[in-house]
Fold this protein.
Amino acid sequence: MATAVLDRPTLVLNKSWQPVRVASAARCLIMLWNGTVKAVDPDDYQTYNWEDWSRLRPQSGDAVVQTVEQSILVPEVVVLQTYSKVPRQTVTFSRRNLFRRDEYQCQYCGCKPQSSDLTIDHVNPRSQGGGSSWENCVLACIKCNTRKGGRTPQQANMLLLKKAVRPRWTHLFSMPKHRASSWSKFISDAYWDVELQE
């Protein structure tokens, strides 16, 4: 249970109160303790240093970390105390980001199995000179990937649901889809609609 609470996402705001990333609650509690951030109360925007935050009494249902002596609230939002550069303006090609781009969906049949039942398929197979890139990799369920084998979609007579493209960058691209409702005070809903076409 404690591990799940510490893994919860916390919104990190820049010194100018612009969202820059999401970090784990564990990481944010460490940054709060060492003075890198202040915790934000989303209701009244009041900020708290570690000493003040650790004195707050949790309400029933609040996410807390239980120590030997007390319960410490897990912050939903923190603000950096020094300026943080805006993240690079490209989405890194990675397994996690590919799953995010393709919305955990097989790009051939459209099914949405468990993550463990999805594979990364090279549209132009590596055996035919295809590399690992945004434009050549898609998610495929095991059944479709097996059916396609070492062929191109045309050779296997299979159609892609959509063309594989590099996602447009947004500083919220890697943020989790599941987020605290309090984040809406800092992020417009429009930012959560990541556009994938350039």
Observations:
- The chain has two domains: 2-87+172-192, 95-148.
